Structure formats: structure tokens, C-alpha cells
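Recap from last week: sequence in, structure out.
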Amino acid sequence: MELRLLTYLQKILNAQVYDVAVESALEKGTKLSRRLGNHVWLKREDTQPVRSFKLRGAYNKMSRLTSEELDRGVICASAGNHAQGVALSAQRLGCRAVIVMPVTTPRLKYEAVKALGAVVVLEGDSYSDAYSHALVLQKENGYVFVHPFDDPDVIAGQGTIGMEILRQHQHPIHAVFVAIGGGGLIAGVAAYIKAVRPEIKVIGVQMEDSNAMIQSVREGKPVLLHDVGLFSDGTAVKRVGDETFRMTRELVDDFITVDTDAVCAAIKDAFEDTRSILEPAGAMGIAGLKQYVQQNGIRDKNLVAITCGANMNFDRLRFVAERAEAGEEREALFAVSIPERPGSFRELCETIGHRNVTEFNYRMSETEKAHVLVGLSIENNREIPEIQKMLAAHGFESMDLGEDELAKEHLRYMVGGRSNCSDQERIYRFEFPERTGALMRFLSNMKPTWNISLFHYRNQGADYGRVLVGIQMGETDAAEFQRSMLELGYFFADETSNPAYRLFLS
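Predicted C-alpha cells:
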């Protein structure tokens, strides 16, 4: 291995990347550092011209092609970021580029590739499917294949990131955290670090549902996954490379797996420190770093996470924001059972007290018992048993839904529907000011004979919370209710005649 390390060290030192790449900053994550009790450094590869590190390896490979090879044109398979690196490199070198991308590739990425002048072919559901099709096209047309990770020149190009980290931070570093897809980034970074400063730990981070490298190291050979999760499309690789596997097995100190919630929380962390929005793969290093600190209880260490990409689709942001709260253990989600009688909803709110409510979902469905989906702000998950104990002491059964994917992804948006118990129901749309006590003020203005039959609220981080409320009341009570709400001073609108309500909820 020493000879191989020396060879890679030489290749990295002579890599040609700076015709297209920049030396990205190594920035202190101030808020992350303070919260984690360590010195967290972010290697900002998300600031490269194509918002990803991938152009380093692509250009280092392509700059070494002969004139005859460049005339034939190049082809690659990519989930997006390598594609942009190849396309930009081809534009700079004046050659034709054909890029095969999975059909699941975010639109942002394949449109960026087209804008750089490359021909895009969409094929298959994952990188591995696209790769197989690219090999067919290569044979048919005589293109030169530019592999996204399993090529020594590509690996050496990515290794320049490790070289920059050690040049930019010459003090002790405890560990560097690197996202793994096919393994090109971690192989290159580990090769340089272990050749120059072997005491620094290199820790690989993979998604729980896309962990081909971890399984391969465990099995002692590259394994083929049947399928992979696509949330982190940049690391959705069914099989790692042969060369990247050998290097990772020999050089990487440890591995961490992270889930979707943890990555969403890491995207939020990066935004709060840098005001940049990372893609899921780009935030995996931060997610792994946070988990490592929590598991090992380390303090005052220098820790580096490579933020390797920022090609994020805008339409994913709502999902990321929803899941970030759970990922950083700032929100607990419960199913709470309460008696189906006037006043019990208010009793539940009084029991919750001054805790910040992030969500209330309820639809009357039975005459004896009501089931309410409740989201609460917490400091960490250790509070969950205490909250359940408190609810039980007041006669409210509860179920923790924090680990329930069905509840988090679907049920929270589906609580409702028609109700056979909702006679004499009127529907009102409200805007509540987002401040403590706003809900209790509303409930205090309710007459005991007015029964809440539907309640939907989700904190969206705005100044006002949008709330939908169903209330059972007599015909003569409607005018009194309106007067009471006008005194309250919250904006509201009567939606009882709304055709969508009548179609789905009435």
C-alpha cells in the first residue's frame, strides 16, 4: 500500500484542476462549533463553478486525453454533478460530450448540463442503470469513457481537496468527514491525508439506504445493492468502484450511516452558518460529523466536513424544512387520545402549557374518543418520555410517532376527511399570530357549547399561523361566534360554503 500511496501522492501533486476549479475556502462553522463544543470547519466545495467538487476529477482526467481521443468525444454516466464537471471540461477543451443521466435526476442538474453544451440522455432509475447504457453508447460510437469515480486520474483530481485542507489548516485535525457514493472523493482525500498526516482520521458517511461501500468493506469485496434510496441522488450508487473499494478499505478509519432527517437537519445547519443551501449529498459530511460528536462525546477538537455539492432542487425545500426539525431533535410528534366532548381540546392545550406547538391535526370521527396529531418543540429527544408521562397524568394516552415514517410522510397531511359526526359544522379559516398563548386566547373566546370538530395547524415559520377550524354550533350561534372572533382580533373567514370543503370534508 505504501507504493500505491506514493503513486497517488505524486498524481495528486501534479493534478491539473485549477484551469476550471478554484481552491475552495475552509470556513469555520461558527454556530455549529458553538453548539457541538468543537471547532467545526467546512470545506466549501459547494462554491465551485458547477456547485460541486466533481469538476476536479473530470478535468484532471480529460486534460490528459490525446488530441485523437478528444476528437472522438467523451461520454459519462452521472446523477448530475459529475455530468456538469465533464460538460464544463469538454467546453473548455473543445470536445463533444454525451452525458447519460438517470431519469430520477433533478431537473436543475440536467438543465445545467444542457446549458454547458453537452448532449443529455436520460436512462434508468439509478447511476448504475445509466452507467450500463453509457457503456453501450460508448461501444457504438467510439467515445472515450470518463468514469465518475473508478479511475486513478479522477481519484487524484478529487484528492486535491485533501491537499488543500492540510495546506489551509496546519494545526491538529482530529477527523475529516467525507460523503461516499462511488468512493472517488473519499479515496482521493484519504490517499493524500494518509500519505502526509496519517494521524488524521478519515471517516466515510453514507445514507442508511445507499450504503454500498460499507457493505462492500464488511463483505471484503464490492457488492451490488438491489436498489438504493434516491433522496441523496448524488450518492445513490448500487456498486462502488474496484479501485475506490480497495483504497477505502485500506485507508478509511471508520464509517457512519445517516438518515434523511439527519441530512435535512445538516442542510439547515449549513444554511445558518453559510447562507448556502446544500444538496443532500453535500450535507452528509456535516450529518456524519454531528453524529460522531454525539456518539463519542469529544470536545474542543478540530473537525472538517466536506460540503461537496449545492445543486438543490427548489421544490425539495419544503420537505427538507419539515424533516429538519425531527433531524435535529427539535420537534416531537405524538398521537394523543382525548375524550370526545366539548372542552377536552382546551384541557389538552392547558396540559401542554407553554410548550411551543408546531402542529395540531384533528378531525372528529367518533362519539367517545378523539385522536389528535400533535407536534411540539423540544430541546432533545430525552424530553419525549417526560411529555408522555405528563400527558398520562392528566388522562391523555399518547403514542410517540417520531420514528414512524408513515406518520411523518403521510398521515400528518391526511388527518381529516369526511365525518359522520360533524352535523351543524361550520368551517373557518384563521390567521393566528405566532406567539405563545395565541391558541389559548382563541379557545378562551369559545362558548362551552361550541364543539371543535376539526382543527388543522402547522407552524411554517411565518409571523402568522394559518389555521383551519371546524366548529359545531346551532344556527343562531353563528352571529355570536363572529362577534366573539371580531373581539379577539384575529383575521378569519367563513369557509362553510367553500366547494372544496363540501367535496372532501363535509
